[in-house]
Amino acid sequence: MALTKEQIAKRIAKEVKDGYYVNLGIGIPTLVANFVRDDISVEFQSENGILGMGPFPFEGEEDPDLINAGKQTITALPGASFFDSAMSFGMIRGQHVDLTILGAMEVSQNGDIANWKIPGKMVKGMGGAMDLVASAENIIVAMMHTNREGESKLLKECSLPLTGVKCVKKIVTNLAVLEITDGKFHLLERAPGVSVEEIIKATEGDLIVNGEIIEMKF
Amino acid sequence: MIKKTVANVREACEGIADGMTFMLGGFGLCGIPENIISELVRRNIQDITCISNNAGVDDFGLGLLLKKHQIKKMISSYVGENAEFERQMLSGEMEVELIPQGTLAQRCEAARSGIPAFFTPAGYGTEVAEGKETRDFKGKMHVMEKAFEADFSFIKAWKGDEAGNLIFKGTARNFNPVMCGAGKITVAEVEELVPAGELDPNQIHIPGIFVQRIFQGEKYEKRIEQLTVRKRN
Question: For chain B, what is the domain count?
């Protein structure tokens, strides 16, 4: 069975280590916060200017001066701090943030990512995505393996306008966990009940399958 | 003490004219200079170039200026869900320049700090880098970006004093501090304006040297764009 969005988030949460500062993008990445082990210390950064972001406020306790980058009302945890946008992106470009998790429309086998623009459609903007992908050492992409038409989103080359080049190293999809090295996708894990053949079929880019591929554990 | 206070928003906006470039603080609707935006609408200033991370919503924030067709060009990182914005952009009535958010912040900071240009990795290999100088530093490619030039910076802070010193609250800080001193004239509106000496100098986020005019906003709606809450168990 292919993973649900929650299960993708749950699998990615395993990559979050003790002591990490983490930036979560909008969509599936946001869900990762719900599955991080509670016996480790992690701080979430939102690029609009908070470290130590907490859960949504209780009804009636929302503060219009306290939102995340998705413009949702949030809370600040003990130890949190606020800062301006230049400092926020200083943290990101200066590689002080340990892990960036974001969504993508397409990823290519050399690590290019496209996630901000579809020609012919209303363009909303790249927000902080270009700064994040250009700078982060450790990027995990959360995405569906194929689009609604069943076409692969893991490609030899991206067809959409790029957000960044050669920056993605790890991908968690609804079918598999993959790594990008030497300009190729490498299959690391498969979703429970999903065969290697199904993953090969759903991957347009070059896919290396080495030995026995284990099932994901959560 | 050099006094920066002006009586009201009308006095604060003295000198604004058609065709000018304005920087406006805020992220979404959080920390936007509400009173100044209302004044720009009231004066019906035309052909404005706005440097602002976002473009408001249909009936609030910069959306109010859009509705009256006062904006010639938007320079933003994310323009979100705004039907009128989309219509004006697609019809070509309004020009839009989208730039990475960190680059937007740094171009403000550079303008304030006397740095004419800088190199950033953001946007390298994408259409953002087209026509720009690129350079390799330590084996990584970077794009040259230039400091903004703006006539006015419009800022919203939480507290301020007569000397123009500012303190921000929560994530309403965002682009506001980096735009202070980045335009030729910086105008700050605050929720609470106090006499000099009442703010602890240790707690000040932006020193008054970067602010030319300060006033207390008449009212703040502080609209929430996306109300997200959890239930008490």
Answer: 1
Task: Residue A63: list chain B partners with CB under 8 A.
Answer: 170
User: Which residues of A participate in catalysis according to the annotation?
Assistant: 47
Q: Domain holding B38: CATH number?
A: 3.40.1080.10
- Give how many domains chain A has, as a whole number: 1
All residues of chain B having their beta carbon less than 8 Å from the beta carbon of residue A161 are 126-127
Could B171 and A67 be called an inter-chain contact, meaning their C-beta atoms sit closer than 8 Å?
A: yes
Give the HSE-up count for residue A95: Cα atoms under 13 Å, Cβ half-sphere: 8
Dihedral sign (CA B54, B58, B59, B65): positive
CATH code for the domain of A129: 3.40.1080.10
Is B227 inside any structural domain? no
Contact criterion met (CB < 8 Å) for B230 and A55: yes
Which tokens is A175 given?
A: 């079918």
pLDDT score for B132: 98
pLDDT of res. A86: 98
pLDDT in tens, B147-177: 999 999 999 999 999 999 999 999 999 999 9
Domain range for B74: 9-117+149-216
Is residue B178 less than 8 Å (CB to CB) from chain A?
Answer: yes
Q: Is residue B37 part of a domain?
A: yes
Judging contacts by C-beta atoms under 8 Å, the chain B residues touching residue A165 are 124-126
Sorting pLDDT into bands at 50, 70 and 90, what band is A27?
Answer: confident
pLDDT in tens, A104-115: 999 999 999 999
Contact A128 B224 (CB under 8 A): no
DSSP A118-149: -TTS-----TTHHHHHHH-SSEEEE--SB-TT
CB of A136 within 8 A of CB of A64? no
Q: What is the ipTM of this complex?
A: 0.96
pTM of the model: 0.96
